[in-house]
Amino acid sequence: MDTQSYVENLREAAVAYTAVLADHPVFQSLRGPCLRVLGISAEACLAQSPENPLYAAEDAADVVAVLQAAKADGLPYHVVYRVRTCQHEQRWLADTGCFGTDADGAVVMTGCLRDVTRAAQLEQASLAQREVFELMTNGVSLEQLLHKLVVSAEAIIPGMRCSVLLVDSKTNTLRHGMVVSLPDWYRDAVDGLPIGENVGSCGAAAHAGERVIVADLLTHPNWRPFRQVVDKLGLRACWSEPIKSGGVVLGTFAMYYPDPVEPSPGELALIKSYAHVVGIALTHQENMLEYERTRRDLDAKIEHQTKELRLARKDVIEAAHLAGMAEIATSMLHNVGNILNSFRVASHAVQDILAASALGHLEHVLARLNEGARVPGADCEQRYLNYLNGLKTTFKQEHQELLRETGRMFDCGERILEIVQAQQQYSQVGKRREFLHLGPMVEDALNFLMTGADEGEFVVTKALATVAPVHTEKIKLINTLNWLLAHCRTALLYATRPDKRLHVALHGIDDETIELVIGHNGQAVEAAVVRRLLAMSGGFDGEPHDLALHMAANYMQQMEGTIEVRDNQDDDGIAFVLRFPVRV
């Protein structure tokens, strides 16, 4: 369609106008329907000027720029702007037209106007509500969300005021949710408003669960008890929409107007959409609160269970520690028992020796002398006799004391042997074989090791595969792991390198063997020396024995496993390689 045809069509439109563009568009003529769209008189339209434009001042720069560009290019134009009617109502108009020339050759604008208020309001509301949804995802508080919604709604319809009231189910009242432009005294007045059939607009809407339209607050019976509040407030209309979620009324969204007015279809759509979004915000807030409550409950349960696990683990570790001590004590008592047995044998030998003492021969000689045997020198003889008699008395006393003490030694030895035998019998209770999973046992041993470790002392790396359980003695396995890990920690403690590391790996070699590797990159004793310590054959060049390593080796042998020592291939330190047989 060419420009001339476009102009002709516009002239036939029911809302056509003509205007000229200088520094500002000025109407020359308007048809009747165009005035109805504008909502103002013909005189007001024709009296417009740059100082008194038809459209809102905030839209002026954009409108003039679009029109000047269309005039320069000779193209049709389309602009959307706001106008204020005689009733101070804001409308959105879509202005479409083109430039041409009149009979005198002057450039004129020919176009038509359409009322797009409803669509513009809904678009603005949609943009604002999308911003609110984005704010929800960012964790903004409910107060900020409601403030954003109220401000955006009031910006769409100048002069209109909004409020959000929330249902208090415990008291069956409405409590303050959000107001921005309404006075504080009014906010306080409606806070705690009863929910009832004839209680204003919001109380009635919350009661019925349906929209309540009050076009004139001064004449409606619901507002009769609040007449003084209405007079002081200076507003005349109030429409209230219930805020719902899942059929439950959560509150109300109200729109107040300065003049008595019925809602337009666009305004009804607007209040409905805002109440819906507020409902989403309230539901979101409740969900977040429920999530927070659930999270706190879970945190409390986790903390409680963690404490119980720590206590249980502490008990297990303490029991394992005591069991290990009992195992060591049993071994030591066994050796002590052997020594005491030898002591008992020795005490019998002492008794035999004393029974066969030469004291009897001395008594016999003295008896002969006392019976009349004489030796030269009577005085000398008497002195010898007196001496020997005194010596006999002393020997007899010592002999009796030795017999009494050796008897006590024998009795003590018997009692100690009874204690040792009872302890050995008791220790047999812990020597029960059972199927054990190495992974959890290693984890417990590591946790026990790290209980006394300083933060950052060294790094623990683990590669624990799921393997078949091993059939072994739990106490011996626990002690073996603890002793080897303690040896590694000591080596790391004396190391000076910054990247100190303890590594543990568990995997199955085949269907019959499981391998556990415990190693470190610390200040290592040479692998050959550690092998001698394990075998208890150490001591070369002043090397000390290590009873813990030796017992670990013995335990591995008793558990039908093996233990080896190897150097780390690409690093300092050593690694213990433990292999366990798989028993079905």
Describe the fold and architecture.
The protein has helices at residues 3-12, 32-38, 42-46, 60-73, 117-137, 142-156, 184-190, 202-208, 227-233, 265-355, 359-371, 378-427, 438-451, 474-493, 527-535, 547-558; strands at 16-21, 25-30, 77-84, 90-101, 107-115, 161-168, 173-179, 193-194, 212-214, 237-245, 248-257, 433-436, 459-464, 470-473, 501-508, 513-520, 562-567, 574-581. The chain is α+β, with helices and mostly antiparallel strands and 584 residues long. It has four domains: 3-115, Beta-Lactamase (2-Layer Sandwich), CATH 3.30.450.20; 122-291, 2-Layer Sandwich (Beta-Lactamase); 306-429, no CATH class; 433-581, Histidine kinase-like ATPase, C-terminal domain (Heat Shock Protein 90). The strands form four sheets. The chain has a six-stranded antiparallel sheet. A five-stranded antiparallel sheet has the order 2-1-5-4-3, with helices on both faces. Helix 5 runs parallel beside helix 10, helix 6 (142-156) runs antiparallel to helix 10 (265-355) and helix 14 runs antiparallel to helix 16. The protein is elongated.
In short:
The protein is of the alpha+beta class and 584 residues long. The chain has 4 domains: 113 residues, PAS domain (Beta-Lactamase), CATH 3.30.450; 170 residues, GAF domain (Beta-Lactamase); 124 residues, no CATH class; 149 residues, Histidine kinase-like ATPase, C-terminal domain (Heat Shock Protein 90, 2-Layer Sandwich), CATH 3.30.565.10.
Topology of this protein?
Blueprint: H1 3-12, E1 16-21, E2 25-30, H2 32-38, H3 42-46, H4 60-73, E3 77-84, E4 90-101, E5 107-115, H5 117-137, H6 142-156, E6 161-168, E7 173-179, H7 184-190, E8 193-194, H8 202-208, E9 212-214, H9 227-233, E10 237-245, E11 248-257, H10 265-355, H11 359-371, H12 378-427, E12 433-436, H13 438-451, E13 459-464, E14 470-473, H14 474-493, E15 501-508, E16 513-520, H15 527-535, H16 547-558, E17 562-567, E18 574-581
Parallel strand pairs: 13-15
Antiparallel strand pairs: 1-2, 1-5, 3-4, 4-5, 6-7, 6-11, 7-8, 9-10, 10-11, 12-14, 15-16, 16-18, 17-18
Helix pairs in contact: 5-6, 5-10, 6-10, 10-12, 10-14, 11-12, 13-14, 14-16, 15-16
